[in-house]
Amino acid sequence: MSEEPRAKRPTGLGRGLSSLLGEVSRETPVGGTGGSSDIRLIPVASIEPHPGQPRRIFQEEALAELAASIQARGVIQPIVVRPHGHRFQIVAGERRWRASQKARLHEIPAIVRDFTDAETLEVALIENIQRQDLNAIEEAQAYKRLVEDYGHTQEALGRVVNKSRSHVANLLRLLDLPAQVQVMVGAGQLTMGHARALVTAADPEELADEVVRRGLSVRETEKLVQSGRPTRQRPLPIGYKDANADIAALERQLADMTGLKVSIKHAPKGGAVTLNYSSLDQLDMICQRLSGGKF
Questions:
Q1: Tens digits of residue pLDDT in 62-73
Q2: Catalytic residues
Q3: Region Disordered: which residues (predicted)?
Q4: Contact of 204 with 179, CB cutoff 8 Å
Q5: Is the pLDDT of residue 102 over 70?
């Protein structure tokens, strides 16, 4: 009897982090062998980082604090790895692995999953975004790789990370900035709002230095770009055309923070702020942030 053809493995795109990882029972013992999602203890020396990890900057002070916590309490949340030759490659949790090395642990709890290259990048991106661990350039570079190497659309990426398509598009545009300005964003000298304003400038490197030197706000940076110096002409995003400059700037700042389309209607006696979501996951994210819950 001929074997039935194997169904094509679906991409993880759009299924969310829990769906990609699989449901791991809270009662699953460390070292269990009941399934692919069991938590196992793996030698730290047998694990290596993924070269395509979106996160590039690890603060030494924060690593030292996490290492001290691990020494006192152990690794509370397992990392996620995939088989890689005779070793394991990190999918999510490189910071915990690095801190475990500093804490001189010999083993670390891990969930082993057989991810494809695309799924590996998706999970790493989602986890880092949910923990708010990526700077804008790191996030943009991960989006670019998913678009160029794996054929994901901006709209589909937005669904994966619970952000608007315009948020993904705005981040990708930051990669048009000169390398020096991108480094300043990665180092935290400039925010995403600053970078978005500088993308339209003809001399972004010079203006970026001025912004940092003078400690300008995002709104002040936008005014600097619009102050008569030559700029790359670009129409304002839809939704901002009818708003005055200050309200439009505030809308953009809130959109950068939430990854959602934000509109503000202001009147002398008050107004309204509207957050637009396109899925229940995005609504859940809004509720968690407003309630102070962990995202």
A1: 788 888 888 888
A2: 94
A3: 1-38
A4: no
A5: yes
Q: Give CA–CA dist 159/161, Å, rounded.
A: 6
Supply the pTM of this predicted model: 0.54
Structure tokens at 100: 């475990």
Alpha carbon distance 160, 209 (integer Å): 35
Residue ranges of the chain assigned to CATH 3.90.1530.30 = 30-130
Beta bridge partners, 108, equal 42
pLDDT tens readout for residues 192-207 = 889 988 988 888 999 9
The three-class DSSP label of residue 152 is coil
Residue whose C-alpha is closest to residue 64's, from 35, 95, 19 = 95
Strands 79-84 and 47-48: unpaired
Residues 6+ apart with CB under 8 A from 137: 174, 175, 182, 185, 186, 195
Structural fold of domain 136-291:
Arc Repressor Mutant, subunit A (1.10.10)
